[in-house]
Structure formats: C-alpha cells, structure tokens
Amino acid sequence: MEYPVSIFESIKNRTSLPVFQAHCKMNNLPTSASWEKLKEKLDEEISRSPARKKEIESSLEKIYKETLSLGKRAVKLFKIDKENSEQVFNVLASLKPEQSAYLENFPQPADLDMLANLTADAYLCQTNISDEEKIVTNIFCSKRAFIEKEERNREDIGSDAINEFGWQNYDEFIFIKRKYSQCFEYVRFNKENFILEVIVEERSGSDTSEAFNLIQTKINSIFANVASLDIRLINPVNFFPAINAIYQCATEGIISELGFTTVTGSAKLEKMRITKKDLREEKFHLGGKDAIGGALTPFRVAVRWNVPGQTLQEEALLPGSIRQLGSGVPHLDHVVLSRALTPEAMQDMLARIITHLPKT
Nearest 5 degrees, angle CA 258-CA 253-CA 318? Predict the structure, then answer.
C-alpha cells in the first residue's frame, strides 16, 4: 500500500466506517462495505496514475485532520464560576506546546515504535483560540493501552508447548495482547457560558476513566502550579437527569436504546434494529409500558438525530447503569457522542443534551 498507512490506520482507529464513508463521498474517494475492501479499492485507484495517487493522499490527509476531534468521544463538563472565567481562559490560552515525541510529527500520528517507548503522560501539542476570542481549545496527545483477546485451541498451541507448560487438561486458550495507540484529547473552554469540556476518545478495549483522570490531573496541576488558581476539575456536571428528560421529550430525536427498571421488579435493555424507528413508538415497548401504567425508570438512553442531506445519524449515549439508581442521587459524569461529521455538529449535539439538564 503506497498511501500513508499510519494515516489510514489512525482514521480507522478513531472513526467508524459509516463516518469515514461519508467523508470519502465528500472527498471523491471510493467507499466499500468493509475496511479491508476499502483498502483494496484505494490501492487499485492509486495504481492508476501519479495524479490520482496524489489526490488520494491529499484527501486522506484532509479527512485525518477533520476527524482528529471526532469519532466516538466521551465528554465531561465542568462549570467555572463567572468571576474566574477570564482567568481560566487566559491561563489555557497562554499554554505553549510541550516538547515531546508527539510534537515532532503533530498533527501526524507518532511512529508506532516510538510510541511503545513513551510514557503514559499527556503532552500539550496545540492551543487554538477562536476568532472572537471566546473559546480556547487545548489539544493533548497521549498513548493508551488496548487489550485484544485471541482464542486458540490445542492444535494452535501444539503438543510441545502443552506438555512443557502442563496444559494437558485444557482444551481452549485465550491469549491477551496489549497494544498501544496514540490518542488526541481535548480541553475546550467557552468563557461566555462558563463551561469547560474535557473530551477524550472512547475506544473499545481501553479505559476511558483513566483518560479522563489523566487530562483532569494535567489541568488541575496547571491551575495549581503554573497559575496559582484555586480551581480544580473535581465535580463534573451530572448528566443522569437528562436520561429521563430525553426519553419523555417526544420531539427530541429518535430513541435507539433504553435501559430501565419497572415497578414489577424487572430491568430491561431495549434496542432498535431499524435505525430510523423510534423506540418510544415501538409496539412491544408501548405494550409493556401500558401494562404497568407507564411506571418505568430509565437509567440509560441513546438518542439519534436525522441530519438533512445525509444518511448518517448523529448519536448521543448517556451510559447510566442500574447500579447508579441505587444511590441517593444518581450521578452520570459523562456523555458519549458519535457519528458527527464536523466539530460544529458535535457541539450542537452536546448543546441539545444540555437543554435537558436541570436549570441551575
């Protein structure tokens, strides 16, 4: 494969295939039903001519940069007191990139061999200030460990290894492989609405809570040691009240997943197989709800929105759990946003969720 493999793999790690397909259509690139077949099509088109090769490489670079802050993102919100807003903005806006292996190639992905030898710390690579000087965004790079599990049988292992390690009584084996990937995490502060966002990558096989802790610790250290501010990112906004509010609001998107308990003592997790159908209106759901007089308590919800001019639906997941219902005041500290094609679309999704939070 002649185009930048690291760029393609980074897009693949960070972005879902439907989102990448949408970007491909907008950038005159082929689409396919799988990542593997898409690679084959790109290889085929690259071989046609140097001009097409250059066009594909340029398009992949463009998509890579556009999707750095997208993919599936977990978001925490912190409210900053109005009197501290200007100070927080100035501190974050004044931060300069830190010397690191990430900075050498930023925004291109770091070399995989180099990545394996880096520490797990987060390093600031870029600070952006909006034209109106109301929003500051800090971009951090870090590495995160991902766990892959591979099943093996006795034939795969071989009799020599089985005898050597005393595994004669085992028929199946699970191998756990740890690999590392570069992540791009964001801190975004709007000094007009006093909301600071911590935005990290939500990836299968990795610990999102560790990513949040890494960035929060980094910012708290900057506030304390660099700026001497008595401000800490400790108490994030509670998204749990928005779960029932979104479910009850018939005009807010399409409910694709709902977790809830009932007065009869059961717990349910319902999902829609048809993306355009709203679970609120699904017959089985309505029948069960009517049977208990509507007495259900949601603890998890996913909502999608149709976007004019595109087949892809944007989605927000509020991943509460039944365990949280058992606490005095259920608390959900983050929301997961996905399938947005632009940073503006992701911000619009977040704004819609915020409207369903209690006014304070």
Answer: 40
